[in-house]
C-alpha cells in the first residue's frame, strides 16, 4: 500500500512490474505471443507436409498442369479430349460450375420471386401452396435433393430407341434432353458482341433518361427503346454475319442419339435441385422484403386512389429491394458454393474434375488450393457485383 | 355547425346539419373485436376548419383514414355534398379520393420516387398530367409550400423533417382537394416552424375554400387557429363545438385535455385492446 502511494510532488522511478501492469505494454506483448504461436504452428504443418510428400516421392508445385490428363469428361463447353492437359480439364470443370451456378441464380430468382409474392397472396389456396413448397424444399438437405432428382430423371424417360418427342426435333431420353442448335458460325460470335454492346448502350440511355425525367419531367419510353436497341443490334449482326440458317438436329444413329445439344441428366439434376432448394430461400427473402415496407406506404398509395398493382410495382417493390438485396446475395453465394455437391451425382464440375486430377497425380494440396481459390474468386466476383447493384438500388433510410 | 350537448357525457351534434358539405352519420369502425370508432357524427361546411384533439388511441387517425378511404367503415355513413361515399354499392368510390387530400402522420412519402414525382404521382397515374406539365405543376406546388425548384429532384430521404412535411402537404393539395385531412402536421417541429406551417395551411385553405380537418396535440394551435374543435376519447366524440364555446364547456374530459392535467376522467393506464397494448 505504502509502496504505490506517491509522495506529494515526488516522481517514483518505474520498475519492471510497472511496465507489465501497463495496459499498452501488455497489449503489445499479447500480440507478439499470438503471432509467434501462429507462425510456429504454420511452420510445423508446412515442414511436416513437405517432409511427408518427399518421402512419398511426390514433387510439389503446379508443373503437373501441363501433363496429359488422359481421362474423359462427359460434357464440356470447350474442346476437350483425354489428350488435353490437366489445366484444360480443370478449365472444363470450372466452366461447368459457372454454367450451372449462373443458370441456377437466374432461375431461382424468378421462381423465388413468384413464390415469395404468392406467399402474401390474398387467395388462400395460392398462399398455402406456396407455403408448402417453401417449407418442404428448404427443410430437406440439398444433397438428398440432388440424389432424388438424379434417381428420378434417368428413370423417368425412355431409352434412346424410343425417345420421347415433346416438340419437333427435341428428344427426351434417359441420357438427357437433346435440342437442336444452330451450326457454329461467325455470325453467332458477332451476335454475342452485338448483345454486349447493346447492354452497354441501354445502360447509358437508361441513365440519361432518368436524368432528363428528373430535370424536365419528359418521360422516355425506356422499355421499348431498350428492346429495340437490343434486337436491332443483334439482328444487324446476324445479317452482317451472312444470316446462317443451318441447324444441327439430333437424330437416332445406331443405339445412341447424334447431333444437337445434349442436356445431361446429371446437369439437369444439379440445376433442378439447386434451383428449387435456393428458390425457397429467395422466396422468403422476397416476402420479408415486401413486408418490411411500412404499411404507411400502402395507405398513402390508397389515399391517392392508386390501384394495388401500381402501388406494388412503383412504390412497394422498389423499396423492398433495399431490404432484399443483401440477403439475396447470400443466397447466390450459397448456390454457387452448393454447386460443388454436383460431384455426388457425377456432374463434371470443378470439384469432380479436381478430384480425378488429385487421384491421378497425388497433387492434393495443389488441386485443393486451385479449387478453393476459384470458389473464393467466383464468390467475391458475385459479391462485388451485388454490392454495386445494392449501392445503385439502395435508398437511404430515413 | 350545431351546438353540442354540453352536459351529456358523450356529446353528439343534436340535429346534424343536413345541408352541410361533409357529414359523418353515426360512423363506426372495428378492428377485429375492438370498436375503434363508435357512433361518430360530425358535420362541416365548405371552407370550415376543425381540429380533432384527444389522448392517444382515441381513434383520431383512424377517423382521418376512414375519411380518406384507406379504411372502410363498418357502420354509419360518410356524406360528401349529400352523397354517401362509403356506400360501396353506389360505385362512386373512385371519385371520392379525388376530392380528398391527406397528410399522414409520418408523411409516408414514397422513398422510391424523387420529390416532384411524389407530389404529382396521383396526377401522373390517373393520366391528367404528363411529362413537363406534371413537373411544372409539381414545382408550382412546391413553391406554394415554400420549397424551391432545386429540391424537386431530391429524394424524400435527403430532406429534413420540416421539408418532408412541406412535401407531404404539397402532395395532399396536388389534386385541388375539397377536403384536406392533416394528421399531426406540426408534430415534431419547433414552434416557429409549426406556426409557419399552420399559416401556410390557413392561406392555402382560405384561397381554395378547402374544408380542413386536422388532428393535433397542440392545444394552443387547436383553439386559436381552427373554427371548430372536436374532442375524442376511446373512439367516441366527447365534445364538439365552435372554438368560442370551448371555455364555457363543462365537459370534464375536454377540460382535462385542454389543461393537460394527469388528474381527471381520462385514465392513462395501459390496457389490452385485442392484440395490442395501448397507452
Automatic annotation (TrEMBL), chain A:
GO terms for molecular function: transmembrane transporter activity. It is a multi-pass membrane protein. InterPro entries: AA_ABC_transptr_permease_3TM, ArtM/GltK/GlnP/TcyL/YhdX-like, MetI-like, MetI-like_sf. The chain crosses the membrane at residues 27-46, 100-120, 190-209, 221-240, 368-389. It comes from the Bacteria. Coiled coil: none annotated. One of its GO terms (biological process) is amino acid transport. Residues 94-386 form the ABC transmembrane type-1 domain. It is found in: Cell inner membrane; Cell membrane. Keywords: Amino-acid transport, Cell membrane, Membrane, Transmembrane, Transmembrane helix, Transport. Pfam families: BPD_transp_1 (PF00528). The keyword Ribonucleoprotein does not apply. Its main location: membrane. GO terms for cellular component: ATP-binding cassette (ABC) transporter complex. Belongs to the binding-protein-dependent transport system permease family. HisMQ subfamily. This is Amino acid ABC transporter permease. It comes from Thalassospira mesophila. The lineage of its organism: Bacteria, Pseudomonadati, Pseudomonadota, Alphaproteobacteria, Rhodospirillales.
